[in-house]
Amino acid sequence: MSYENIIVRNENNVAVVNLNRPKSLNALNSDMVAELGKAFDELTGDAQVKVIIITGEKNFAAGADITNMVELTPEEAYDFAFSPIYNKIANCPKPVIAAIEGFALGGAMELALCCDLRIATPTAKIGFPEITLGIFPGAGGTQRLPRLIGAAQAKKLIYTGAIIRGEAAYALGLVDTLAENPLKEATTLAEDLAAKPPVALKLAKECINAADDVDLNTGVAFEATNWARLFATSDQKEGMRAFIEKRKPTFVGK
To answer: Which of 121, 124, 233, 246, CA to CA, is 20 to 30 A from 214?
Structure first.
């Protein structure tokens, strides 16, 4: 499938989704986000793709494109929100990594929050400046950010609209890894994950994501059920036999 606002390439079981509106610093608009949704539908259904990276050339993205938002009515704003597609990305059964350099502001950082892992340069500019526009993050930011870094730190970032560097975001736990070349670092990690058993990764992700929504006992029971399901897979047999036989396992995703 061809796209106008993103570039998708696949190599070594890793798909890289490049945000591609360089003249606007990759500012997110409805067309770009719709293309992200279509791309994730395609990549989720592609058995050859094991891991997905989201990135942008020079800049991850400078937030949402404000030019089309100024005169929206409440009803139009609700329809404009990126949440349905961001939820799709967050619930993708495959590992998703954000490789961040330059700006990652507002809706762009909310997009990064939908990813499983975030890798950024120490000098990346990260923040949620929506409050300076008379609004607040409206694509999951008020929900995902406090779950990641705690309510107090999330409130401080959202209330002040402060833009912080990647190294400060790393100290808060908003970024998982600092790297001078985030895409290279993300690709190395993605290729490692691509060699892991896909079904186990999928169910592990489901269990970890569920932890935010259920009490501990329910979560542990959900984990036990999914853990036991893995003993019906060929990959579980291969992984354990390879360990016993002191060889590298070959996983087939079944």
So the answer is: 233
- Angstrom distance (rounded) from CA 206 to CA 200: 10
Task: Tell me the C-alpha distance between 250 and 212, whole Å.
Answer: 32
Which CATH topology does 6-194 take? Answer: 2-enoyl-CoA Hydratase; Chain A, domain 1 (3.90.226)
* Matching CATH number, 198-244, of 3.90.245.10, 1.10.10.10, 3.40.50.150, 1.10.12.10: 1.10.12.10
pLDDT digit string, tens, across residues 116-125:
999 999 999 9
pTM (two decimals): 0.94
| Residue from 82, 98, 90 nearest 185 by CA | 98
Catalytic site includes residue 245: no
